Amino acid sequence: MASLSESLASAWQRRAALLVRLREEGTDSLRVFHGTVEGRAGLTLDRYGSVLLAQTFREPLTADELDAVRLHAAQLGLPLVWNHRGRERVPGYADELALLPQVCREHGTALAFQARHRGQDPWFFLDLRLGRAVLAREAAHKSFLNLYSYTAAASLVALQHGAHTCLTADFAASALDVAKRHAELNGIDPARLGCVQEDCIPIARQLAGLPVKGRGAARAYERVLPRRFDIVLLDPPAFSRGPFGAVDVERDYPSLAKPALLALEPGGLLLATNHVAGVSRAQFAATLARTAEKCGVAIQSLEIQGADEDFPTVDGEGPFKLALVRRAPSV
Is 3.40.50.150 the CATH number for 126-327? Predict the structure, then answer.
């Protein structure tokens, strides 16, 4: 069995061609080590601009493992921050650097980054880079709806590449505050993001002209009029509960996909994600196709892609799946 140092070195070598391409695209952030596949389950190393972020999710790094990761960071010329996200408490590591505001770039768009903050997740997810690359190609002169936007990195990419209208929805005020920082870094008026702080279920259902159900329907919630968009990004968490019902991408994706499809202009493009390892690409495609058929939306094309090369898989069926669903144009 390879040592962690050997596994880290091998992973970096495998990314040589990808690094060249990303630099040419104006991107300085990528997954450096995907431990589940590359030799140390429960460990990821991500480069965010000028910082190397190590995250452990179950067992923390041992002293020897930390030494190996520190050496690898030094070889890459990057300062290291380590965040342990498991139950075991570990001493703070690189606390001053972890709290220092940074700027990263993806497809030439500047994105705010801070290695440690009130939440646990980094301020933008590297596996969705492929979806943001699609937006960079497709967004010019289009309207864009971003559901479950988190910090709205995708909205920034769309606006940077010519989207004329944007609606960005997420329930977390802290995430939308970061979205505004992203906008300011790019000289974009944050108002252009069209931020709506609300549960995405009532927002999507209203846009689609569907009734709002659940316990939350009795309370005040943000009102929007039915409307269609040229591009819709649906990037839900794997599971969450809220007053308007559960988000469960493994068991009930149709309830999320239906309003997203109905809010799509004829000829428009839906980008839909599924992060659950137990759902295959074929199953995800079948679910989306059945949902479109049931809600009367004609599909011109449906393609399922995985993450980029820095998220390797054993069998081509990694957790991250991106569906590109093109609605048929009007006759």
Answer: yes
